[in-house]
From TrEMBL:
Keyword field: Membrane, Transmembrane, Transmembrane helix
Listed transmembrane segments: 20-40, 46-70, 77-96, 108-131, 143-165, 201-221
UniProt organism field: Hymenobacter elongatus
Sections of the chain in a coiled coil: none
InterPro entries: DUF1361 (IPR009793)
Protein name in UniProt: DUF1361 domain-containing protein
Pfam families per UniProt: DUF1361
Length: 231
């Protein structure tokens, strides 16, 4: 079992700082585009994306907190924080589905709205992958590589199911506490009667495969870069 005090070594902390700077710049672009649209049109059409971006930051913040925690503290927090992380994790890739809102609107060029939503979707996806990498690393160090990848695959499939629940049934992470019975019934109904809900499993599997392929690509690109550095 890994015995280091923190999940992030000094070089990893420098990499984390660089990541925060890049993500910060990218998020700033999204916020600037949203605010610019409000100022240009005097309408609040896409202001909800600010809230979506905040929710996408929650799992990344939780995984970063766990990574920076001292070993004994991290061991105690991993399970409870991991559960909260899993509840909020779908909010990050969920922003991809905000492309549903894209349509020509008066007062702003179509390409502007396309760029606005794409930058938000990109930020949500990158926050999801960065956060999942943190959590996979923590699981791998405790249980091994196979368990780490199993965790990543399950997390992405569950997040895809969460995307379906949010986009089509309009549930959110808070419904686990505020509306648990309805949420449980709708989930159980789809699990027990999958043939009656083809869209549920179509969305879950398609988005799950897409997210897994994207995540695997990002991981592979990172390893290729590491290999070049060692040459």
């Amino acid at each position: 079992m890994h015995t280091s005090v923190a999940a992030f070594s000094l070089p990893q902390m420098r990499q984390r700082l660089q990541l925060l700077l890049v993500l910060g710049a990218s998020l700033t672009l999204s916020v600037a585009l949203i605010i610019g649209r409000v100022l240009l049109t005097q309408q609040m059409t896409f202001i909800f994306l600010l809230w979506n971006l905040f929710l996408a930051l929650v799992p990344f913040g939780l995984s970063t907190m766990l990574g920076m925690a001292a070993g004994p503290i991290r061991a105690r927090l991993l399970l409870p924080v991991g559960v909260v992380w899993l509840l909020f994790f779908p909010n990050a890739p969920y922003i991809l589905t905000d492309l549903f809102h894209l349509e020509p609107r008066a007062g702003v060029p179509y390409w502007y709205d396309l760029a606005l939503i794409l930058t938000c979707a990109w930020n949500g996806l990158m926050l999801a992958y960065a956060s999942l990498l943190d959590m996979q690393t923590l699981v791998r160090r405790r249980l091994g590589p196979a368990a780490g990848w199993a965790f990543a695959v399950v997390a992405l499939l569950l997040s895809s199911f969460g995307i379906y629940l949010g986009r089509f049934l309009r549930f959110n992470s808070w419904d686990v506490l505020t509306n648990p019975l309805t949420l449980f019934y709708d989930i159980l109904n789809r699990v027990l009667h999958p043939a009656a809900h083809p869209r549920t499993w179509g969305v879950t599997l398609l988005f799950g495969v897409f997210l897994l392929l994207g995540y695997s690509t990002v991981r592979l690109l990172g390893r290729m870069d590491d290999a070049r550095v060692r040459e």
